[in-house]
Write a structure and sequence with these properties.
Strand content: over 45%
Helix content: under 10%
Largest sheet: 7 strands, mixed
Number of strands: 11
Structural class: mainly beta
Low-confidence stretches: none
Mean pLDDT: 94
Distance between the termini: 38 Å
Order of helices and strands: EEEEEEEEEEE
Radius of gyration: 14 Å
């Protein structure tokens, strides 16, 4: 079972910034996007952002303008720069490789982000 390796996260006051990293294999015939999700206590896991092979990005409405998803030049490492953090951003954050039908998607182990007011 492949698990993506995450780093970053931590605790910050509202208005602060954090950066998450995820070591994810490069795009293959199976992988069409790389994504970030989050799960707050007592809530369902929700989509945050993804980046496609061609660099196109998409964000959930509540993080748009505050979070930025990116890849390194080799497209092996995925990042999420989080600015203007709010207490409601507090959650466990997960990276994921999005796979086509018939292929396998992989998740990171999760990293905690806590934003205090």
């Amino acid at each position: 079972q492949v698990q993506l390796e995450q780093s970053g996260g931590g605790s910050v006051q509202a208005g602060g910034s954090l950066r998450l990293s995820c070591a994810a294999p490069g795009f293959t015939n199976c992988v069409y996007a790389k994504s970030w999700y989050r799960q707050a206590p007592g809530k369902e896991r929700e989509f945050v952002s993804h980046i496609l092979r061609d660099g196109t990005t998409y964000y959930a409405d509540d993080v748009k303008g505050r979070f930025t998803i990116s890849l390194d030049n080799a497209k092996e490492n995925l990042y999420l720069q989080m600015n203007s953090l709010k207490p409601e951003d507090t959650a466990m954050y997960y990276c994921k490789t999005e796979a086509l039908a018939g292929c396998t998607s992989y998740w990171g182990q999760g990293t905690q982000v806590t934003v205090s007011s």
